[in-house]
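Quick one:
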Amino acid sequence: MQSQILDVAQLVAHLVRDQEVEGSSPFIQTILNFSLTDSLPRNPKSYWYALKVFYKRTGLLNKELQEAGHQTFIPSVPVKKVENGAVRYSNEVAVSSLLFVKCPEKFILGFKLLHEHDFLVYRSLEDGRPGRIPEKEMDNFMKALKINDPDAEFLGSDTTWFKDGQRVRIIEGVHKGREGWIRRIKGRKRFIVCVEGVAAVAYQAIPAEQLEVLEESSRKK
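Output:
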């Protein structure tokens, strides 16, 4: 039953492409509102998902998702530039292939069918379904990046290696309320926030008096 239903959904996606109506927002909304499978939970609640985008189509997909009424987030960091001897910082996209969207699971599955080769959805290792990012974790990540700290440094998608660091919450300063890990990188202590399995960002060390320890380093246990 599952495969039969997905075959029908794929046929719909091909019809969309064949008739060249992919840019029609009302048509897209009609298709995506179609129930792709009765086996999916009929739960309209929205969750955060991470997308790995190909062919420099992040801007296009971001626009379509926003036009469909869904919240999106593209991580950016301040980049130092020197022009005529003057130093200035400009915000630039941190990872050109990374896009976050908050939407129902049914929507992201339908959107994937419409953009079969344009992106991949980060999936759960437990059941293979689109991986839901906890609201608190995503909120922590977005707020940290929106501060536009010039010391922000993206570390890639491997978020497992620093988990033996000390888990803390910042209680003072510009990053007040943010949670993350204290870990040495190239001999320097850094404060790290992440979306697990997707992206990690490091900041300069936070003074000890501005930290609340949530969990001691596993290396000390």
